[in-house]
Amino acid sequence: MIGFFDSGSGGLSVLAALRRRAPHADAVYFGDTLHAPYGERSGDALARLADAGLETLRMFGAQEIVAACNTVSPHVLGGSAHGARIIEMTGPAARSLSAHKGARVLLLATPATVLSGIYERALVGTVYLDSLPIPGLAGAIEWDESETVIRGILRRALLSRKGERYDIVILGCTHFPFVREMFEEETGAMFGSVRIVDPADAVAEAAVGAFSTYGSGRAYFYISQDSEPFRKRVERMFPYFSTTRVLQ
């Protein structure tokens, strides 16, 4: 059983990438909707939430875990796994970019991810990295705000890099792929032709290589507080396994 952990529904994009490669893998997913979003919380709070989320997955029998949240990656790497085999987002993403040495890269992520400097450390000596925090965007996607609201947050953030040129844009939050088309349109309008990189693909590839993916293909979904947007996203993305349970 492979466990997936995120602050909410963003990690579903990583689970979907895994299922495309390993449809028979059994998975249990925990979204901490009670505390979502994580991206503007303090380091101490994130460490506590990461510990609690990973412990929840271990309670369900997951000893192979994908921490499908960029924001908690520093804390996972710092010891929150407590013996479980774990894959976080930044290592696989950095390895996937090794073929683009010297590229000009823009990381779009939550404020906490940017503040941690984890991508800078992972990519040092590989690419020229510029990081742009986008406050409020993960939450707007999590709670299914309108396209107008989401596009407005993204466009205002990108304006601070107007006139720059990049080869690659990294979607450094697992919520961002849910509006990938919007990212393609807005980054294309601002910077011209750029390549969009979703780390979920590299993370899924790493999980298939490291974890057991033989099973019945079952998926179980748990959240810490009821969320209609989460339920709808699961129903849309995983129609055969759409039951979401709220932990008491």
How would you characterize this protein structure?
The protein has helices at 12-21, 43-59, 73-80, 90-96, 111-116, 118-123, 137-142, 147-158, 180-191, 199-210, 228-237; strands at residues 2-6, 27-31, 64-67, 85-87, 104-109, 128-133, 168-171, 195-197, 219-223, 244-246. With 248 residues, it is α/β, with parallel strands linked by helices. The two termini are 22 Å apart. The relative contact order is 0.21.
Strand and helix layout:
Elements (H helix, E strand, L loop, with lengths): L1 E5 L5 H10 L5 E5 L11 H17 L4 E4 L5 H8 L4 E3 L2 H7 L7 E6 L1 H6 L1 H6 L4 E6 L3 H6 L4 H12 L9 E4 L8 H12 L3 E3 L1 H12 L8 E5 L4 H10 L6 E3 L2
Parallel strand pairs: 1-2, 1-3, 2-9, 3-4, 5-6, 5-7, 7-8, 9-10
Describe the structure concisely:
The chain has eleven helices and ten strands. With 248 residues, the protein is α/β, with parallel strands linked by helices.
Compressed to H and E, one letter per element, the order equals: EHEHEHEHEHHEHHEHEHEHE
Total number of strands: 10
Looking at the structure, what is the overall shape? globular
Note the total helix count: 11
Instruction: Give start-end ranges of low-pLDDT stretches.
Output: none
Distance between the termini: 22 Å
The pLDDT mean sits at 94
Q: What strand order characterises the main sheet?
A: 4-3-1-2-9-10
Integer-rounded radius of gyration:
17 Å
Q: What level of helicity do the residues show?
A: 40-55%
* Strand content range: 15-25%
Structural class: alpha/beta
Main sheet makeup: 6 strands, parallel
